[in-house]
Amino acid sequence: MSIVVCGAGAIGRGLLGELAARADWPLTFIETQPGLARELAAAGAYTVHLVGQATVTTRVARYRVLTPAQPDEIAAAVRDCRLAATAVGGANLPAAAALLAPSLAARSTPLPVLVCENWPQADRTLAEALRRHGAPDTAFACLPCSVERMVRRDGMGLDLIGESGESACVAADVPLPGFQVCPDLTPYYARKLYTNNAGHALLAYEGFLAGCQTLCAALDQPAIRTRLEALLAGAAEMLARTYGLPARALDEHVDRLVRFRFANVRLADRVDRVARQPLRKLGPQERLVGLLRQLTPLGLPLQPVCRTIAAALCYDDPCDEESQQLQALVRRGGPGHVLATVCQLEPAEDGHRRCLAEWLAHGWSYPRLMRSGLTLPSMGLRERARPAVTSGRWISFALMSLPTGLPERLLVWIRSVDLWETDPRQTAL
User: Fold this and answer.
1) Are 342 and 329 in contact (CB under 8 A)?
2) Which tens digits make up the pLDDT trace of 195-238?
3) Between the CA of residue 151 and those of 29, 274, 364, 380, what are the distances in Å?
4) What residues contact 345, with CB distance under 8 A and at least 6 apart?
5) How many angstroms separate the first and last alpha carbons of the chain?
6) Of 258, 309, 354, 427, which is the most exposed, with the fewest CB atoms less than 10 Å away?
7) What is the Cα–Cα distance from 125 to 118, expressed in whole angstroms?
8) Which of 140, 139, 266, 242 lies closest to 193, judged by CA?
């Protein structure tokens, strides 16, 4: 028994590598980042610490590391292994397929490939890419996998820390122990996306606005915790009504998330890591906008998720390329433009207007957000308006009653008369 894992990142090492070590399976990593590949090969071993209600420590040592510069070794490993897996990120699946495909036709049996990606229809993406690279349909079976375990680096080395008692759901039985078989993964993927991922996003973007460094610190803010609980409650009700998941089990899942997983100091993730790539996370099928679209037809409260989308629009990290691209879009076209193009929320949609209203409320309420948003003009209006707009809540209510498209036109007008300030030093109310 052996396994080939494409990607030696947190999930590759902290889930797949850890399960392989516990089962005493030989393990081959295929890693495209030269630095990580060299470090992992030189170390010869690393440790995964699982913490929670129980503590489990696993040393992973029975592995080798291959790179794309070793095609013959990769071909032999893929030809002879019992199981393969990807943990490379959805956008990198075509590259993984190019590495796996050449040797699949030489196999005597079809190769099960666990697709451990937080990416919509990742199994289809990988299967199509394998076919494009010449792999016959009879040579592989792509198995979607929903990873529940949270994993992060433990210090500066290769060691990792993750959650005990949490692993992954897979669509069919696999020979490697540690996976829960779920023939229909759709409800479980939705649960992860709209509770785990959406909750993480709220803590990250709201935490950034509050100046927090970690998700635990954000959770310690009473106002943020209240908004998190409201968002998760709405998500749980939607999941029960839309996907038929048991309400009691959902309540227990949400409670575990807030009290044990998000609050675990040893698992405390950094705000900047979770908030990164905001353009992707604001996509129409992603954790926030996707949740908004699921809540809307059910008549469930939209304010918590709209506020989180607004906070994401304000995310401004100079070290994150997507964050800077997002802020450039906001400055150039206004938040309504981003909601329409990135989130694909039409101006006529209620969700679009609510998100815009929340963004304006954020802009008035948090001085640091003024870099990417609306400010009061400098012509003596700031002082006169200060008492009325400190909270910005009235703006939110007013915008909800305006004709469709007027908020966007208002922003364009403000820019046209040079009332749009870009210097953050001049924008505090």
Assistant:
1) yes
2) 999 999 999 999 999 999 999 999 999 999 999 999 999 999 99
3) 18, 12, 36, 52
4) 284, 289, 292, 339, 351, 352, 355
5) 64
6) 258
7) 12
8) 242
Verify that 283 and 256 share a domain, yes or no. Answer: no
Contact 377, 316 (CB under 8 A): no
pLDDT digits (tens, 9 = 90+) for 130-185: 999 999 999 999 999 999 898 988 877 999 999 887 789 998 999 999 999 998 99
Give the mean pLDDT of 235-260: 95
Residue ending a domain, among 132, 154, 183, is: 183
Verify that 41 and 67 share a domain, yes or no.
yes
Backbone φ, ψ for residue 152 (5° rounding): -145, 170
The two tokens of residue 58 are 């696993």
CA distances to 3, 61, 102 from 316, in Å: 40, 40, 43
Contact by Cβ (8 Å): 357, 410? no
**Claim to verify: residue 52 and residue 177 sit in the same structural domain:** yes
Shared-domain flag, residues 238 and 203? yes
Average pLDDT, the chain: 85
Mark whether 136 and 282 lie in a shared domain: no
Axis crossing angle, helix 71-80 with helix 93-100, rounded to the nearest 10: 80
47: helix, coil or strand? strand
Asked whether the CA dihedral 416, 420, 422, 426 is positive or negative, the reply is positive
Cα(326)–Cα(179) distance, integer angstroms: 38
Distance between CA atoms of 398 and 364, rounded to whole angstroms?
14
Q: Which structural domain range is residue 290 located in?
A: 277-296+314-429
Q: Is residue 259 part of a domain?
A: yes
